[in-house]
Amino acid sequence: MLIKLPRSKPLKSLSSKSTTMKQINTKRSPNCSSSSSVQSTPEIEKKYVHRVYDAIAPHFSSTRFAKWPKVSTFLHNLPSGSVVLDAGCGNGKYLGLNDECFFIGCDISAPLVQICKDKGHEVLVADAVNLPYRNGYGDAAISIAVLHHLSTEGRRRKAVEELVRVVKVGGHVLITVWAVEQEDGTLVDKWRPLSRKYLDEWIGPGSPRVRSVGSVSLESIPETEVSVGNKEVSGDEKDKQQEYFVPWHLPYHRAEVSGASVGAVENGLARKDDVKGAIVYDRYYHVFGEGELERLVSGMKNAVIVDQFYDKSNWCVILEKTS
Questions:
Q1: Which of 183, 193, 214, 267 ranks highest by number of CB atoms within 10 Å?
Q2: What are the structural domains, with CATH classification, of the chain?
């Protein structure tokens, strides 16, 4: 029998050892995420996140069906009648998981949202850094494997602020992100680290998303000129690497491999791998190091951490809105 938690108490810890509740530091980062520029989608996300998921949506959905136990536990511990907002819902595998709650999902990918609609879910197209809900609309919110697709700390922080904004006081927010510390270290070897030149010129710490090189802005550089690969990243740099292109192999026999995929190959957004018989798309990831997710939420003045844990190569945190 499912035990419901009273709204006045924090969620039961999902980690093996419960983390003591602690107030998040209210000091704001100099790189304040309230800037309107934070809500402008960088080209790297448009090309290597949005366009990629639009292209692979049906195949991606066919591989996403297993529910993570700790996400399921979080959702099943919510009081009956809770409104749950899933920001970055993908193919909707968590929507409706607790049939005693009401779920609303959103995702930046219209094809993924359509897949959710076809399943009968309440969904809409929306950006994680600009959620289309009024303040305090939901009782809880989840962001599962989303923040690592945002290419600056300011945008990642803004996404967290949005999640807290749209839940009621006393509501809870679960966030998970990919970890640098993967359980299977061989997976990292299959990822394509962004070159130092690319990091310095496009993603540099605290830098604006557009920098001019002569008369040409980096936003105008085509995909084929983005430099990636192990050869340009030294051993020491690779140890510190957190910016990657993670490949997605779309088999030749898939219906999605059509004119659009051919065009993507011609434009440099994807490449052919005849050995594996697939079109390969690169997805942008900023993978999180230990403690980074906790530091990211340190600018929040109206939330506390009620749990934090590592699960299935992901860093995870649960927040409670306090005011």
A1: 193
A2: 22-180+289-321 (3.40.50.150), 186-280 (no CATH)
The span from the CA of 196 to the CA of 177, in Å, is 23
User: What is the model's pTM?
Assistant: 0.80
Q: What is the pLDDT of residues 23-42, one digit of tens each?
A: 333 333 333 444 567 888 99
Cα torsion angle, 86, 68, 284, 162, sign: positive
* CA nearest to 315, candidates 199, 176, 201, 121: 176
Nearest to 156, CA basis, from 310, 15, 315, 13: 315
Give how far Cα 141 sits from Cα of 93, 103, 303, Å. 15, 9, 13
Q: What is the pLDDT of residues 144-167, one digit of tens each?
A: 999 999 999 999 999 999 999 999
Give the Cα separation of 289 and 56 in Å (integer): 28
Give the bridge partners for 308, in sequence order: 317
